Amino acid sequence: MDDPNTLNDQPPARMVAGALAHLAKHMETGCQRSAYLAAMLLERVAADPEADSHLRAHARELVEILERDDGPNERADHADHTGSGQPMRPAARAT
């Protein structure tokens, strides 16, 4: 089984790669969940003392931009995967 602590112990480059993937999806589709996830990863990079100081500064800057551009409706519901303002419903389980 995967160790849950490994998710928190990712190197900065891997977190930046994930943040860029989420940011690209947000820019292409308007998906607010992707923007939220990108900001979450970038916040981790900004707080990581092992990350380069320039990388931390740019990560903080991007987080501020994403938070500033995040409208009030999207902030209230980060479960939205569609960019429609409506949360996605969980798939029905097979019985």
Describe the structure.
Helices cover 59% and strands 0% of the residues. The protein is built from four helices and no strands. It has 95 residues and is an all-alpha fold. It is globular and about 30 Å long. The two termini are 26 Å apart. The protein has one domain (10-76). The protein has helices spanning 12-29, 32-47, 53-69, 72-76. Helix 1 runs antiparallel to helix 2 (32-47).
Q: What is the chain-wise order of helices and strands? A: HHHH
Backbone shape: globular
What percent of residues adopt helix (DSSP H or I)? Answer: 55-70%
- Structural class of the secondary elements? mainly alpha
Looking at this protein, list some descriptive labels:
globular; mainly alpha
Blueprint (SSEs and pairs):
Blueprint: H1 12-29, H2 32-47, H3 53-69, H4 72-76
Helix pairs in contact: 1-2, 2-3
